[in-house]
Specification:
The chain is mainly alpha-helical and 368 residues long. It has a three-stranded antiparallel sheet with strand order 1-3-2. Strand 2 and strand 3 form a beta hairpin. The longest helix is centred in the last third of the chain and has 31 residues. The termini are far apart. The mean pLDDT is 82.
């Protein structure tokens, strides 16, 4: 029996039939050590097909984490590394996603268990549907990559890291204010430069993970940050991410600021729960959901106010920014012609709402 026929028979039993006979498929593979190389090659092919259907490395790993076990995650990471290693150049931000893949060695499993793990992962990969592409895949024509990130973004990251690390609120507020000033000025300067040079600048898209628990409230927070930074955000609850559409400087600002505010919100919620318990009141899931919902709502108001103030200082750029807003809206509608408004449920705890709003008022929003 040839190697190829063993793999194909295993796949026919476990992947491409309604019965999903994993035991039969795993038994076939376990009995034929000569099938291992072909099995690994087919796994890399399945990963490649995921990319061709719009998925990126971080998206694939996120789905494996959500649906399967650590053994599957480790195998998926190894397949991603093997497939991306074939290419001299990778699309923007792919190297960052690959760098944070779990450094996992193959677990010690008997051949049947290892084959079962492999087939379960492959079954997930082949069934991932096509999603909206947010960039090219390896092997396609790529624009010349920029070496490193813009210096101003590196400064912003450093300022926000210091703001989150310091235990002295006035210092944190000063650092965050400087970071937001750099964000806003960089975004406006990039828009003006593109307009003056008639650069072929177009909106892009980026996926941001929105993880459980309380993913609805987190998606609302991300949407608030995106809106304040002249971007559009569309949440895919089934796959655990939001797609943010906007121009590159604004996408950078959204990602950095959302991450920082999420850290602050989580810390504030933990403190609020501790205070509630100390007062003899038991906090619940509803408290946390209400807390984060209020936090997102209030932060959105604060961010919008800051953004309007920054733009107001340079009224001459309004036509340029308006044109970019139209371009972003058009790109978002092209990518997502059909969207629905999600209703946030579980927001019924008054104490959670009050505490969340108060925490948002105290949050270190840059520029406020």
């Amino acid at each position: 029996m040839s190697t190829g026929s063993t793999v194909e028979r295993a796949f026919a039993a476990a992947l491409f039939t309604a019965d999903d006979d994993l035991d039969t498929g795993a038994s076939l593979l376990a009995a034929d050590p000569g099938a291992d190389a072909e099995l690994a090659l087919r796994g890399r092919e399945f990963v490649r097909r995921c990319w061709e259907r719009g998925w990126q490395p971080a998206d694939v790993i996120r789905m494996v984490v959500r649906e399967l076990s650590s053994e599957h995650v480790g195998l998926a990471a190894r397949l991603v590394r093997a497939e991306t290693g074939r290419y001299e150049a990778l699309p923007p931000r792919w190297a960052e996603q690959i760098a944070v893949l779990p450094a996992d060695e193959p677990p010690r499993q008997d051949r049947f268990s290892a084959a079962t793990t492999t087939l379960e992962l492959y079954r997930l990969l082949v069934r991932l549907p096509a999603i909206e592409a947010v960039g090219p895949v390896p092997g396609e024509s790529l624009t010349a990559p920029v070496a490193g990130e813009p210096r101003v973004l590196a400064r912003i990251r450093a300022l926000l890291a210091k703001a989150e690390a310091t235990g002295y609120p006035p210092e944190a507020e000063a650092l965050s204010a400087k970071a937001q000033e750099l964000m806003a000025r960089h975004s406006v300067d990039e828009a003006v430069l593109a307009s003056r040079t008639r650069a072929e600048d177009a909106p892009g898209a980026r996926r941001v993970g929105v993880d459980a628990p309380y993913e609805t409230a987190k998606a609302v927070l991300l949407d608030a940050v995106a809106s304040a930074n002249r971007c559009r955000s569309v949440w895919n609850s089934a796959f655990g991410f939001s797609t943010v559409v906007g121009f590159e400087p604004d996408l950078d600002a959204v990602e950095v600021l959302y991450t920082s505010l999420l850290v602050q919100a989580s810390a504030a919620m933990t403190r609020a729960e501790a205070e509630q318990r100390a007062a003899g009141r038991k906090r619940t899931k509803t408290f946390r959901q209400s807390f984060l919902a209020a936090y997102a709502h209030r932060i959105g108001e604060r961010l919008s106010a800051v953004a309007e103030e920054v733009v107001g200082e340079r009224g001459e750029v309004l036509p340029v920014l308006a044109a970019r807003d139209v371009a972003v809206a058009g790109r978002a509608e092209e990518m997502f012609p059909e969207t629905v408004t999600a209703r946030m449920r579980g927001v019924s705890d008054e104490a959670g709402w009050v505490e969340g709003a108060a925490a948002a008022a105290r949050a270190r929003v840059p520029g406020s």
